[in-house]
Task: inverse folding
């Protein structure tokens, strides 16, 4: 078996990346981080050994790349099965699919994410624009390089935080570990790696997009909920005297108030279901966007 093992850590990681082909990119990023962190820690703990000797020594306990990939796939399947909420019953009829969204937890998670997005989007946008502006302004000073390193490092941490929010609320698998940074490399080489990492720029683009997207999500959620709940509450409001005149225009004439009191709650209920469907669709699409921009391209 030792003859088939890679002789360097980069070769081990490359073979592991190849063995993880086809699995979720977020899972691949976590697996690659764990493997590199473990191997480099072992190498640092045994300075008298070469990379090939360290890999051969840990192969029995940690595993060859193909074995590690299989372990991560199996563990991920078990964890996802244990954590996944019960799937709503499959409904074949059109009415069943439309009204079945009421018991879909993903719809409510996405709706809450849409309401939260205006706050997180504003923060992310402010963070990137302020950090980038200060980085450019301080570039001519000696403190410019430390500031840029701090800014990019903090942005990566925020990407992990946003990933956890996306995974919890939208159900999209996101990385749980950052990209590994080899602290044995020279500082300038580590800085260059951060600037050439596609995820650095993908994260900044994602944060910039979150402001307009957050405003759009919040507006859609608030308008949909407000209108649907107001329509549903119409009979109660009329009975309490808070809405003495219910006016609905139709062909330039007023519909009888009694019909409006009956029809508006029905329309409000339908609008509420439509809002939940829209929220679920937004959640799915936004989860895919987050996966593309926040997950390392090196994990694919």
Result:
């Amino acid at each position: 078996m030792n003859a088939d093992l890679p002789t360097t850590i980069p070769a081990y990681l490359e073979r592991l990346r190849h063995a993880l082909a086809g699995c979720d990119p977020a899972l691949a990023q976590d697996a690659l981080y764990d493997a590199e962190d473990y191997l480099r820690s072992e190498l640092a703990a045994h300075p008298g050994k070469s990379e090939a000797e360290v890999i051969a020594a840990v192969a029995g306990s940690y595993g060859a790349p193909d074995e590690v990939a299989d372990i991560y796939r199996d563990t991920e399947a078990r964890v996802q099965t244990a954590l996944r909420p019960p799937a709503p019953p499959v409904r074949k009829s059109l009415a069943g699919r439309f009204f079945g969204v009421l018991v879909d937890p993903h719809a409510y998670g996405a709706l809450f994410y849409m309401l939260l997005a205006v706050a997180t989007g504003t923060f992310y946008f402010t963070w990137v624009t302020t950090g980038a502006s200060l980085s450019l302004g301080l570039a001519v000073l000696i403190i410019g390089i430390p500031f840029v390193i701090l800014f990019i490092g903090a942005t990566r941490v925020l990407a992990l935080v946003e990933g956890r929010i996306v995974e919890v609320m939208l159900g999209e698998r996101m990385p749980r570990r950052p990209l590994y940074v080899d602290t044995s490399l020279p500082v300038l080489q580590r800085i260059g790696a951060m600037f050439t990492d596609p995820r650095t720029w993908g994260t900044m683009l994602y944060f910039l997009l979150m402001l307009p997207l957050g405003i759009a999500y919040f507006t859609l959620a608030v308008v949909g909920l407000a209108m649907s709940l107001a329509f549903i509450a119409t009979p109660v409001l009329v009975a309490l005297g808070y809405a003495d005149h219910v006016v609905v225009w139709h062909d330039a004439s007023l519909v009888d108030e009694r019909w409006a009191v009956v029809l508006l709650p029905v329309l409000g209920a339908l609008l509420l279901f439509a809002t939940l469907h829209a929220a679920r669709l937004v959640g799915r699409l936004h989860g895919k966007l987050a996966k593309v921009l926040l997950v390392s391209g090196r994990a694919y």
